[in-house]
Amino acid sequence: MGANLTQKILKEHLVSGELKPGCEIGIRVDQTLTQDATGTMAYLQYEALGIPRVRTKLSVSYVDHNMLQTGFENADDHRFLQSIAAKYGITFSRPGNGICHQVHLERFGVPGQVLLGSDSHTPTGGGLGMIAVGAGGLDVALAMGGQPFFLTTPKVVGVHLSGRLQPWVSAKDIILELLRRLTVKGGVGKIIEYIGEGVKTLSVPERATITNMGAELGATTSVFPSDEVTRAYLRAQKREQSWVPLSADPDAAYEEVIEIDLNRLEPLIARPHMPDNVCKVEEVAGTKVQQVAIGSCTNSSFRDLMTVAAILKGKTVHPDLSLVMSPGSNQVLRMFTAYGGLADVIAAGARILESSCGPCIGMGQAPPSGAVSVRTFNRNFEGRSGTKDARIYLSGPEVAAATALAGVIADPRTLGTPPRVEWPAEFIVDDNLILSPAAEPEKIEVIRGPNIKPLPVKERMPEVIRGEVLLKVGDNITTDHIMPAGAKILPLRSNIPAISAYVFEGVDPTFPERARKSKGGVVVGGANYGQGSSREHAALAPMYLGVKAVLAKSFARIHLANLINFGILPLTLGNEEDFVRLEQGDQLEVAVSDLRGKLVVKNLTRGVEIPVRHNLTDREIAMLKAGGALAVAKGN
Ligand code: MIC
Ligand code: SF4
């Protein structure tokens, strides 16, 4: 039996463990990326390791999230990041150069390499044939220090694409279709590998749209083969030398194969408030819309923006609606300008934002009260847009542009002949906003603003964990629920004491105060607890507030690793009955001196005992006992 592409790349990078689904493996990391919202913490952690120069082939620090400089905080963070990059051998992508995933695809991604990024959409790199995985900042810091990245060997699912997309249907519809079928939990513990004849009909940015949103499936990552299409893309980026052909063996085995016939796909849309709440556009066509937003790391490529421009050319956006556009990168913006698309969308009334995450992370452009906003983004969690009662839909650029003209959700097929976007033989390649590390690092002083506070530390785990249930939540709680982002809270990412005042703000704003008063406690969650963003602040800030354990039906991968990294014990509840035997305010006790033994949570308030489980490895148990990964790395 031959090997699939995932197995081939993982095997090449294997440092420890066995490549058997469910077993823990350590893999060598070739490249890392960080963005500013997770990067400040990652670099503070890297600094704490005391390693003078990164040990990866390439590490890039991007600034793309915290771009609204409403106070000194974000600007100070940018300076900190620039100086620390220069000092430790890290390439720095300046603010304005674009969204980390888009720029990394254009300028740095290499087929067959392993990329670890402190952002959950790092799998965008899978569009180039990389194994690109999102992780918490601390894991990325450790990888920069030369340590392997540990993960549970995922199952490999093949998605077999046949046929070709019909007019007005785009790559976004492929991933929306998968979300419809598999849900936001469907990819947990899996790597999704794309195979079949349909693959070659998709360009690299289209593949990247698909692998990007594999994050919404909960997948560890997603990967496309590296073929002639990949080669042409790299050639157009003037880096054909990075190309290697890569594909699965013809007789490769997969855990499961999912068939998608591209010929039969129709324009799709995700309704509020989850990316898997997908239906055909025609089912919601006619819904009044107040905002359309085009951009984000999912759909902000030259192809995406030019498609929108071609649809809007010579027309004007609907008077009741605001259209905002953020190009994915400086390169995209320059190409968009050179090819005339920018002039067309400005003439049509689009409001142009800088190349950054922008409205995707609630940094500006919050929709009006109760509004419907159609976005080409990847997440539509409640409140993430900055307006609690806004209703966010997710679609491809064709649907978004048709909607911008109509003022209501519109099926683009009503527009007649689809526009043809010509592929450029070459992109405008100019790395003038990318700074190389300093030649004389000893001369670099790291610049720290007053908002950058030292990392909080945790003591060793006690023999018995005691505390009250501070909060009980349901299924699919996202890290946006646990540690919200947005223009008010994001600037506090470098200041854990300050940001901790917003933990669970949208769910129960009394949480931080109650946690502080009761000197910490326990959180109870449903299935897929901690899905979404990789932000380790969703573990770090609760840890600062004294949260000692999370009891949940199941956990999302990155958040689970973050909890362990920061010394919070994740315990899994066996069944629904146990879940209902826990209520907010209950006093709990669990003896944890032997984490290999049978674990029982005593609910002292109700006088019941609840069996709990975990899948922790010995490495993780040692980490939890020591008070977290940094304590272990520093040998405390
Ligand atoms: C997101 O899309 O939620 C983010 C902001 O990019 C996060 C990272 C963060 O919270 O800083 C992610 O997806 O990991
Ligand atoms: Fe930025 Fe949005 Fe992509 Fe996250 S999902 S990296 S916030 S554009």
From TrEMBL:
CDD domains: AcnA_Bact (cd01585), AcnA_Bact_Swivel (cd01579). Keywords: Iron, Iron-sulfur, Lyase, Metal-binding. Residues 521-575 form the Aconitase A/isopropylmalate dehydratase small subunit swivel domain. Its EC number is 4.2.1.3. GO terms for cellular component: cytosol. GO terms for molecular function: 4 iron, 4 sulfur cluster binding; aconitate hydratase activity; metal ion binding. Gene3D superfamilies: Aconitase, domain 3 (3.30.499.10), Aconitase, domain 4 (3.20.19.10). This is Aconitate hydratase A. Pfam families: Aconitase (PF00330), Aconitase_C (PF00694). The keyword Translocase does not apply. Pathway: Carbohydrate metabolism; tricarboxylic acid cycle; isocitrate from oxaloacetate: step 2/2. Residues 7-284 form the Aconitase/3-isopropylmalate dehydratase large subunit alpha/beta/alpha domain. It catalyses: citrate = D-threo-isocitrate. It comes from the Bacteria. GO terms for biological process: tricarboxylic acid cycle. InterPro entries: Acnase/IPM_dHydase_lsu_aba_1/3, Acoase/IPM_deHydtase_lsu_aba, Aconitase/3IPM_dehydase_swvl, Aconitase/IPM_isomerase, Aconitase_4Fe-4S_BS, Aconitase_4Fe-4S_dom, Aconitase_put, AconitaseA/IPMdHydase_ssu_swvl. The keyword Metal-binding applies.
